[in-house]
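Model it.
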Amino acid sequence: MPIQGNLKELSIADFLQLLYMNKKSGIVEIQGDGEHFKIFLRNGNIKFIEDLNRNLLISEIKKTGILNPQIEKILDSIEKEEKVLEIILKENLNKEILKKLIMKLALDRMFYILQLKEGNFTFTEIEEQKILETDLEFSTQDFILESSRKIDEWSEITKKIPDFSFVPSLSDEWLKRETETLSLDALEWKILSLIDGNRNISEIISLSKESALKVARKICDLIERGILKIKEVKKFEEEVKKKKAQEFFIKAREFAKNGQYLEAETFLLRALSLNPDFLMAHLALGDIYYIQKKYRLAAQEYYEVMKRDPDNPLSYYGLAFVRIKLGDILGAIQIIEKGLKNATGKMKEEMENMISILRKLVLMTDTKRSIF
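Modeled.
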């Protein structure tokens, strides 16, 4: 009767240790976090680890160049790695190359299996002679120790690269070191060739066709040597948006200079949709609305600037003009006085002159009222 368990209650490493100590033969099937593996055991030791989501065995064997065209054609029609393994081990192929390849695949898979925290496993006991009739066999104990070592290394890598959605790029500081000679191995050159300022680390790992651990380790080394730097994808996307918003702002300014205010308004709105905190765009849009006599819309834009930067005198200056147009002279004076606290230079002079004019206007209005 199959033995079933939950990874939350018993780790797969502990379960495999039990099977190893009791010299059990059979198949451990593991499913969790979208993964699906089969571990073939004979007398507690590993014969093969099959990844049911990815048939990498054929493609990896093809890379070695040890297959003849006839066998290649047969293997292409087979879906299960277990069956592929049975066929190739019966052929007169280089056993040493095959053993290294199968061990590498199994070790890589054990590394992922041991990190699964959620899911289920099932062990079905089978007679040892029926478990993959091959002379290949690897120590379960050694696999667990090696994978645990890799997991510890992976933990150190993720401290330096907490998210593989980060985008790597060449370091500006390193590019300036013209006299420094560059000594890189083949994989490091490959990583540099895949960096385009848009691909994230996960995409680079996938395109490199190497193990995630190996590529991530190399990227960490390149970062520590000052050759690469990484950006959080969110920050990277924000920088791209800000740059595009700046381009829209420049276009809007050109339209405004030519009196094309509707076009300028359109580009300013596009800039703000990309970067809502773009203060100069809010101020410019406020000015455009003011010119078009859309005073309440202009006031909204000046208030947006005040909300984000209460010390910005330009927003108070613009809003004061809106108040004047709406007939609120006293309100305009109060706003100007608030903005004057942080104004300097020419802006301060203009605001002081504006207060002086407005106060005279209020005085003249009061005098006329007294006459009547």
